[in-house]
């Protein structure tokens, strides 16, 4: 499965089977986590066969069951942390999908207290990602129209339209899709437009846009 297919096929999955991850899946995820941690300074940690984090009232409230594996998204406090976590966490979500696994970003409905992550001095863990073989592949959900999340014009290049379409496939907190893209030539700007955790969402949707548009076609601009 390609990353393009992974973006199209991915849905949040909250109920998982008992089947353990294979050694190959764990190795692939760990290799990607090591690479991200090395290049970004994040302190992402993978936990397998560790069900405690998803056994409390919040996890039940969130309809989670059978979660035995998760990725703790830890990093140094700072203004860019949320967006960085969103971007690189979604790389792991899409990698997991290509490995035949399912995922869900989880900011609220898990037990932070029972999570095994090591959170160093000056670090925080805004979110985790549940991981495993889903009981289902998840389902379609409501989706905004391209014109709701991007400034469009008749002469937009195809890569821009493809990027916006890929961004609309991205997971966002409570499916709020509160982001907005603008373009000036090949310079593209993405902004969060408010809402809960929309700074994490922004990183996620920027990765989807980049994969959809092709990084060779555009640059991120501060002002489009
Ligand atoms: C930043 C962020 C936080 C989220 N937090 C939770 C959560 O606490 N509990 C939960 O069940 N789902 C959570 N989700 C999953 C979203 O509800 C889900 O991505 C959204 O409804 C869109 O559905 P989809 O992922 O199937 O496209 C979160 C997603 C994101 C991106």
What does this molecule look like?
The protein has 224 residues and is of the alpha+beta class. The protein has two domains: 3-132, NADH Oxidase (3-Layer(aba) Sandwich); 146-218, 3-Layer(aba) Sandwich (NADH Oxidase). The protein contains seven helices and seven strands. The protein has helices spanning 3-9, 23-40, 57-61, 81-98, 146-149, 158-168, 198-213; strands at 45-47, 69-76, 102-106, 123-132, 179-184, 187-192, 219-220. It has a four-stranded antiparallel beta sheet, covered by helices on one side. A three-stranded mixed beta sheet has the order 5-6-7. Helix 1 crosses helix 4, helix 4 (81-98) packs across helix 7 and helix 6 (158-168) crosses helix 7 (198-213). The longest helix has 18 residues, at 23-40. It is globular, with a radius of gyration of 17 Å. Flavin mononucleotide binds at residues 11-12, 14, 62, 104-109, 127, 138, 141, 171-175, 197, 200-201, 204.
Task: Give a brief outline of the structure.
With 224 residues, this protein is of the alpha+beta class. The chain has helices at 3-9, 23-40, 57-61, 81-98, 146-149, 158-168, 198-213; strands at residues 45-47, 69-76, 102-106, 123-132, 179-184, 187-192, 219-220. The mean pLDDT is 97.
Instruction: Predict the CATH topology of the largest domain.
Output: NADH Oxidase
What letter string, H or E per element, gives the SSE order? HHEHEHEEHHEEHE
Largest sheet, described in full?
4 strands, antiparallel
Radius of gyration: 17 Å
Known CATH architecture of the largest domain: 3-Layer(aba) Sandwich
- Give the end-to-end Cα distance, rounded to a whole number of Å: 34 Å
Small-molecule binders here are: flavin mononucleotide
CATH class placement of the largest domain: Alpha Beta
């Amino acid at each position: 499965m390609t990353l393009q297919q992974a973006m199209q096929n991915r849905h949040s999955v909250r109920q998982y089977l008992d089947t353990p991850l294979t050694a190959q899946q764990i190795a692939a995820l760990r290799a990607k986590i090591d690479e991200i941690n090395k290049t970004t300074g994040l302190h992402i940690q993978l936990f397998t066969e560790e069900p405690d984090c998803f056994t409390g009232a919040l996890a039940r409230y969130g309809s989670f069951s059978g979660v035995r594996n998760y990725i703790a998204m830890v990093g140094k406090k700072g203004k860019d942390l949320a967006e960085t976590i969103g971007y690189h966490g979604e790389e792991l979500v899409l990698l997991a999908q290509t490995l035949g696994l399912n995922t869900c970003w989880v900011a609220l409905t898990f037990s932070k207290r029972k999570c095994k992550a090591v959170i160093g001095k000056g670090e925080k863990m805004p979110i985790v990602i549940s991981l495993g073989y889903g009981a289902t592949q998840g389902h379609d959900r409501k989706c905004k129209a391209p014109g709701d999340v991007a400034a469009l014009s008749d002469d937009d290049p195809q890569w821009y339209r493809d990027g916006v379409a890929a961004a609309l496939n991205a997971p966002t907190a409570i499916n709020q899709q509160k982001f907005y893209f603008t373009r000036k030539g090949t310079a593209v700007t993405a902004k969060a437009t408010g809402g809960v955790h929309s700074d994490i969402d922004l990183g996620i949707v920027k990765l989807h846009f980049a994969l959809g548009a092709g990084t060779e076609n555009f640059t991120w601009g501060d002002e489009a």
